[in-house]
Amino acid sequence: MAWIKVLLFLMLAGVAGYYSMQALYRRYQYLMLGAEENRFDDSDARVKGFFKYVLGQGKVLAEPAGIGHFIIFYGFIIISIGALDFFAHHLTGYHIPGLGSSFFTAMHETANILVLVALAIAAVRRYILKPMRLDVTAEAGYIVGAIALLILSDFVYWGAADALTGHDPGFIAPVAGALASAFAGLSETALLAIKEIMFWFHTLVLLGFTVYIPRSKHLHMIGAMFNVYFRKTDSRPAGKLKKLDLEDESIEEFGVGRIDQFSWRQLLDGYACTECGRCHVNCPATLSGTPLSPKYLILKMKDHLIDVGDSLLEAKVQGAAGTGVEVAATAELPVLIGEEPGQGIYSEDEIWACTTCRACEEACPVFNEHVDKIIDMRRYLVLTEGKAEPEVNRAFQNLERQSNEWGQNRSTRGDWAKGLDIPLMSEVEGEVEWLFYVGSSASFDVRNQKIAQAFARLMKEAGVSFAILGAEEESDGDSARRLGNEFLYQSLAEANVEIFKEYGVKKIVTTCPHAYNTFKNEYSDFGFEADDVLHHTEMLAQLIDAGKLSPLHDVDHLLTFHDSCYLGRYNGIYTAPRYIITKIPGVRLVEMERNKGKSMCCGAGGGGLFKEDTGTERINVMRTEQAMETGATAIGTACPYCMTMITDGTKAKNVEENLPVYDVVELLEMSVFGAKQ
Questions:
Q1: CA dihedral in degrees (93, 97, 98, 100; nearest 10)?
Q2: Would the CA dihedral through 411, 412, 418, 420 be positive or negative?
Q3: pTM above 0.90, yes or no
Q4: Under a CB-based contact definition with an 8 Å cutoff, are residues 623 and 600 in contact?
Q5: Which of 300, 318, 340, 647 is deepest in the core (most CB within 10 A)?
Q6: CB 108 within 8 A of CB 79
Q7: DSSP assignment of 434-470
Q8: Measured distance CA(48)–CA(233) in Å, rounded
């Protein structure tokens, strides 16, 4: 009879393995429908990241809820190893060497208990507390229930086994020991029956789970590992968008308008998503009531891929045979982006709502990349479909005509510097060390001109060799690119690079994080290799350290500092502005609850400054309210866009008189020169 039991087990395992691998292979085929993308560089960094973020659960543990996942992750590994011994012992009567030891028995029992507790907490959280970020689904309940049943059946099996042999495991296996004591009065036949029933029950649940994983949200158990490995490494900064080849005449569509136009790595995000909702509760667009949710952005992509995957694969095979079926099948795909909700997988409102702040990506424990997908779909709308909101089209026209989004006369671009004796690149004799790239906002917006003026005065005080371009300065093009107009961005970038080369520019300093990001991370694609690109807070911190600027005068403020997304999450600059603040006498820093990597966007990024709000609340007002909660007497910024948005927020809350907004450079200027607050 023993060999029949072994044969039946092997048959069941073989069938389960076949259907599991079949599903996994089909998911892989769907993935390969995507466009090519090279994510095979930087192998050392990728391996290190795998150890840190998969085995070390680095980003999972970034919040308390991650502790439960950590326990389940490692507990399930131990439980799976224990399952091998479970099968071997029942079918052969022998333990796998080492797995029958007291040490492993204690570890396995402990893992079972901890995972069961973690599952109970997860169930209470999902089905009773019901936080905004989690969906109440039958699928999640099945998975929690299946793992719990595996553990409970394991307990009962070993309890019956110990009762049969009279073995008392003691403290190393308290649950199994307690069950063995409870079973002590049963007959040998009853105990053998319990063991047999629990064995086959455990086997069927585990094999069923194996078949179900590739077809469920728990595909992330496999997908997340690959997603982490193929994440962006330092060779491709988080803030860098890919350059489109606009000169290739064979390309008829730019951006992403169909599911198979996403790259395989972008599609992999869908398999990796754990549906934890961290992105959902950190997205300013979601929180302000727009249709966009980064969580559902990923899930809808995955569901759509699975829905159309088989037909696309079939069409691909027939297309390779020259039947033309592939083209027809592609044309019949459901619309990816519709004008109204329900007309496509995504609505246009979803795509335009994103501020590109990357809060979603910062929060994601499996390194999903939401922003690139949204930009690719915006590129499709703008470059292929010729669609954009009226305000966005107006910004494009202004950039084309005057090289600034406001449409101000470009000849007045350097007027903010009148009376400050600031040299122009076209007038200086010999080389200057730094180009001060002012940017459109600080050139034309009256409030932000004060930031440029304060920075220029401080650089002169410190003896920095610098000049500006004045009317020759072009827009950096960031807003055009993030709004999907890659053609306009590239024309602006190429014009800037030509000017930089003409004047031999090697070092750039700017007060604008958006310009900083694109110069530092993206202009290399257009032939510009700078020796140094600095944000003004970085330079000011260096000048203070070198003793070239001395903040001596008191500036009496309890200050809360708002982190710019393009300075912080995009480029990791959190210390420099805070260092400056701590060096100013009289200023006391109080942090908002959402600060540094968890800071909330002001709403201006991704071209948001030039679009209408579509949510039920305004993002900049929400951020201002968060600043007000600190009890601060002033708000600090380090970005002209943030200055505009936060200032508008204080006006909306009617606190502009009592809660002034300053750029860090303005506070430093007050302290260095004793200027009036």
A1: 10
A2: negative
A3: yes
A4: yes
A5: 647
A6: yes
A7: EEEE--HHHHH-HHHHHHHHHHHHHHHHHT--EEB-G
A8: 11
